[in-house]
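Inputs:
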Amino acid sequence: MLIWVAALHCEASPVIDFYRLRKSQGEKAFDLYLGDDMACIVSGVGKLASAAASAWMAARYRDEASLAWINIGTAGAARHDIGAIFLLDKIVDGDTAKCYFPAPTSIPLLPGSACLTLSQPSRDYREDCLFDMEASGFISSALRFSSAELIRCIKVVSDNRHAETGRNREQVSALIRQHIDSIEQQTTDLLALNNEVAALEFSAESWQRLLALAHFTQTQQNRLRVLWRYLHNRDLGPEALLQELSTRRTAASMIDMLERISHGNSETL
Amino acid sequence: MTSCIYLESGIRHHPLAQNILERLHRLPVIEIEHFGEVFNPRAQNFRLQKKNPAIIIASKNKGHVLAAPEGYGLGGDHNYYFSHMLNCLYDCRYCFLQGMYRSAHQVVFVNYEDFGEQIRQTAASHGQAPVWFFSGYDCDSLANEPLTHFTEYFIPLVASIENAWMELRTKSTQVRSMLNQEPVARVVTAFSFSDRFSHDSLEHGVPSIAKRIDAMRRLSDAGWPVGLRFDPVVYHENYELGFSELLDQVFAEIDADGLHSVSLGAFRLTRDHFHRVSRLYPDEPLFAQNMQLDNGIVSYPSARERQMIEFCEAQLMKYIPVQTYHPCEWHD
């Protein structure tokens, strides 16, 4: 599952339109747009809002095998042209000076940049980096739920020393929309990586069916999880295994059976 | 494929840092204060990161030379290790580094001179007694040689310290730098080998067995002491055939009587490393094999391990003099 986090509707709308995400009705805390394998949340401005929205999404999708994240938005910059796009490689929180490092990607098709996340808007373009108000909140929250390799921040410059377009909603959407092809490439790459991680996990449904077969202690469940995950990854047919397991009387004998299958399967490397 | 360079701002002007930056000038450079900012955070996936690891150029400020773990050595009384690099170019599935480090990025500590000073002091602290310094504990000693110029600095250093000995441990074929130097009798290059079945399944990115044997032979022919490390020996249904064939292949090229040392050990990991790496690779058959936990170490059941070691030792003794053999002693 891919989660988009954007501060404003005008920043989210190019993604919503391109992927044809549908508004989820009845949500009270945040505006949410849904697709088959992705969702977009509009958090509101500021790192606290962005962190809260990210955590809210992580809770909503806690049963997903793996979550990937993209923060999409605009930024200010001293030196860069309006409309320039960057993939953040270093995020610094302006209040705490804590640094975060989104992992390098396999397709560096977007130039990288550092970004300083501020608590208040500022026109003091004194540093050689981008400025925004959400990235550090977003990434500090997202890192609780996913590894850095599955988290990206894409920023498009909307303000610089010579021009300010960040308050014009239509212009903001246009600035992001002009880069939708590059954004799509990043999305495709990230989804592939996320799917690779997700594929290592067995389905929640098969796990529940397994647990229903006997009373497993916590220690047994821990062992069972390891075995079930291995056998899932070796394509050993959960249906056939569940059928065989249902003929066993005790949790211990079920684990023993799965151990013997794993050991036998693993001797050929 | 290397993705980018993280550079500690304080080491930017070090000549080796500059050399690396020049060699990898096409890569983006991200400035950091301390390598731990990137290397240490928990929310990293070693498996994913291994696809596109970065190079971290850093300075090591303490712990340059450390006492070697118990049982790690070649018969000497004073054994130390030092790590000019963290993490390895290769991706061997049995390697403990996967379980020890959160990050797969390769850290290069460019302040060799500080390592050198500590090596001198450590050697001097033992008077005239031989002191072993093991490289290749946290990395492959030679794999990154074109980038790190490791042997160009450390071999002359060890040569200048009369009681210092050094082991370079490698799966690499990067021996050109050493072939351009005068051989030093107190520098042993130990080549690690697994049988072809294990190599094909578990040693991702590692040069072929044949190429490594060739590199070993070229070093030996040039007068460098060389050793063999059959560690870890991994159990599989063809391990006996595989190990026998491996020895035939090695000793068809390498003079057994000229070897400095040979060691042998079965696959083993600490419990914590094993748990971490098996969560990273839940699809890996190696971690699903029948294992036991003994004194904090996950390894094969005693009977199986004994059988494996006895078989491999018996095969080895057909080729090597017994005094060359150093078994890996990890059981209490």
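The longest strand of chain A covers residues 68-77. Flag for discussion at group meeting.
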